[in-house]
Write a structure and sequence with these properties.
six-stranded mixed β-sheet, five-stranded mixed β-sheet, 7 helices, globular
Length: 239
């Protein structure tokens, strides 16, 4: 049994894998020994991995995981990967992005990939010939709505909702601008990789993934647990 921990900006997602199959997932608002210990007692994993894009985990928590599990990996820029990493500053690269690529690669081996993670930020990462060529980071949907409200004196905070292409009120103009802008942005990335690699697969994950699946005509595959899948693969690659 493998334990995978993906500590994000707003919550921590936990998955348990048995013989490569994801059997249970949990979401914690805060990663702490008590809550995690209860899950470990329930599932009895032997191996584990922790990836974080937020604050560094508490040393006491890491020491406990190392002592409780037969094998434990703190995913960092020195962890061996199942592909070549050409990023020039690997120590600054979000580990969730690398894990998502590893997960996508396990689903579509030896296939050009564009992996889109639509979360707090939206990231675009390219894998071709088992080589990570790099990627881009852009503000996510909610971040764009908040920025328009917080960085101006009069624009309201708007939630995503269905609107025509052209807004006919301030609220609908904000919603249409943010949502249509994101759709056009993602479409541009898809068209670019498809032009260079017609057989490329497009995989999307993250909290806003289904917004793009519903509204884009391109064939894209959604995988809500792509990062956990990649973390589990990294355990198998490194143990």
């Amino acid at each position: 049994m493998n334990l995978t921990i993906d500590q994000g900006n707003s919550s921590t997602k936990i998955g348990f894998f048995d013989n490569g199959e994801l059997i249970s997932t949990y979401k914690l608002k805060f990663l702490n020994k008590k809550a995690l210990g209860e899950l470990i007692s329930l599932h009895q994993p032997q191996r584990g991995i922790l990836s974080t894009v937020s604050m560094d985990p508490e040393p006491a928590l890491l020491d406990w995981l190392r002592g409780d599990l037969k094998s434990f990996i703190l995913f960092d820029h020195q962890t061996p990967l199942p592909f070549t990493n050409h990023y020039k500053t690997p120590q600054t690269l979000g580990k969730d992005r690398l894990a998502a690529l590893a997960g996508a690669q396990s689903i579509y081996p030896d296939t050009p990939l564009l992996v889109i993670d639509a979360g707090t930020a939206i990231t675009f990462d390219i894998l071709v010939n088992n080589e990570y060529l790099g990627g881009n980071i852009s503000p996510g949907m909610n971040m764009r709505f908040k920025a328009l409200h917080q960085q101006t004196s009069r624009l309201p905070l708007v939630a995503p909702h269905e609107v025509p292409f052209w807004g006919q009120s301030t609220n609908s103009a904000i919603a249409a601008g943010v949502q249509n802008g994101l759709l056009m942005e993602v479409t541009g990335y898809i068209e670019k990789i498809k032009h260079a690699h017609p057989n490329a697969k497009i995989i999307i994950t993250g909290g806003d993934a289904y917004f793009f699946v519903r509204n884009l005509k391109s064939i894209i595959f959604v995988h809500s647990n792509l990062v956990l899948l990649g973390l589990n693969r990294l355990i198998d690659c490194n143990v």
